[in-house]
Specification:
InterPro entries: Fe-S_cluster_assembly_SufBD, SUF_FeS_clus_asmbl_SufBD_core, SUF_FeS_clus_asmbl_SufBD_sf, SUF_FeS_clus_asmbl_SufD. The protein has five helices and 18 strands. It is globular.
């Protein structure tokens, strides 16, 4: 009689699918570069709020943008005229779309799946020009948008995106810098109190090109703006700057990704925020990835938060991944705190009232970023907006002291 021997199970002990899903194929993402990417919303599961990229976000208020049907028609915009700058609408299958990056999460993928045409702005001037893109005529209907901003080789430009009024907008913004281009891109959020804005910005920076990306978030019920800057060519430089002021019940979130993928690249990340009022919530997550190919990298990121009253919450998480030891330097820092009593005392000793001293401290704290915009009219308007925010918060703080 021939003995039948059962085959041995050589699989790793315990590596089996569980009843709660295909566990074996759902290993946690270990590095930022391993996150799944797709332009198709169906490739991403429904957001629960437990995901790493969503755990600080009030996802229950975002159902229409994450799971609903979005209007993908043209977003009403106005663009100022400038020498060497063109503005046009292009079809979603145009080859100029998708060069800077694609979504890593459901919100951005939903917007990408829904938009019909993209707004393309091209900067081709070798002298610095200023272009303002104004979006103040939206309504509260859920919308999807797509914008492409391209800087031609050796061009110079400043592009300011002004957002105000009512909105329920989910969008993707692509920023493409060709070789030797220098571009400053500013996104200003001064939405109405009930507005919701989800935005993913993707940038690719060419050889010896330089991008300064500035975010100023002051208005809106929920603002979640996440820039991803890819330094894909040797000598590329990326600076990501942000200033934000959260009031009671307001949620302002910024997740910044700096991807070094070429030799001798440089990056600096500085985000500064202030919070006041019950339920004011800010989130900053900074990811810096220095790949094996990015020898000679010089990188630093920091986030500072100034708490002006009780009942606020500031989440600040810097992350740094280094895959090569041959770098110039890399570091990160994060701090959240209240007014420095020594600063206030010093100013009061010079005859300045406590209320005015507090204003001066906050003003200097935030305007360090705003002053980098490079457009006097915009800087003055945002300084005035910060002053308006401070008028109530500082008065309340002084009375309660």
């Amino acid at each position: 009689m021939t003995e039948v021997v059962a085959p041995q199970d050589t699989a790793q002990h315990g590596l089996k699918a569980h009843s709660d899903g295909d566990w074996a194929n759902r290993a946690p993402v270990q590095t930022r570069s391993d996150r799944p990417k797709s332009t198709n919303v169906s490739d991403f599961e429904v957001v629960t709020g437990r995901e790493a990229t969503w755990k600080f976000t009030p996802v229950a208020k975002l159902d229409a943008l994450l799971n609903g049907e979005l209007d993908g028609g043209r977003i009403p915009v106005t663009v100022t005229e400038a020498a060497g700058v063109t503005s046009e609408w292009i079809a979603r299958d145009d080859a100029r779309i998708g060069r800077a990056g694609i979504p890593e999460e459901r919100g951005a993928a939903a917007a990408w799946s829904a938009f019909g045409e993209a707004h393309l702005v091209t900067i081709a001037s070798d002298e610095r020009t200023t272009t303002v893109i104004t979006r103040d005529a939206l309504d509260a209907a859920p919308r999807a948008g797509h914008t492409v901003i391209e800087a031609a080789p050796n061009s110079r430009g400043l592009v300011i995106i002004e957002n105000s009024g009512a909105a329920q907008l989910s969008e993707n913004v692509e920023i493409v810098l060709q070789e030797g281009a220098h571009l400053t891109l500013v996104s200003v959020q001064q939405w109405d109190d009930e507005a919701i804005h989800l935005a993913s910005h993707y940038a690719t920076v060419g050889r010896d090109a330089s991008l300064t990306h500035i975010v100023v978030s002051l208005g809106g019920g929920i603002v979640r703006l996440n820039p991803s800057i890819h330094l894909d060519h040797e000598g590329a430089n990326g600076e990501a700057l942000g200033a934000y002021f959260a009031d009671a019940g307001q949620h302002l979130e910024h997740q910044v990704y700096m991807d070094h993928d070429a030799p001798h690249t440089r990056s600096r990340v500085t985000y500064k925020g202030a919070l006041q009022g019950e339920g004011a919530h800010t989130v900053w997550i900074g990811d810096v990835l220095i790949r094996r190919s990015a020898t000679g990298t010089d990188s630093y990121e920091q986030n500072r938060n100034l708490v002006l009253s009780e009942g606020t919450r500031a989440d600040s998480i810097p992350n740094l991944e280094i895959e090569t030891g041959d770098i110039e330097g890399a570091g990160h820092a994060s701090a959240t705190g209240r007014f420095d009593d020594e600063h206030i005392f010093y100013l009061q000793s010079r005859g300045i009232s406590e209320e005015e001293a507090r204003k001066l401290v906050v003003r200097g704290f935030l305007l360090e970023v705003i002053a980098q915009i490079g457009d006097e009219a915009t800087e003055e308007r945002l300084q005035a907006a910060v002053e308006a925010e401070l008028a109530d918060s500082v008065r309340v703080a002084v009375k309660g002291a």
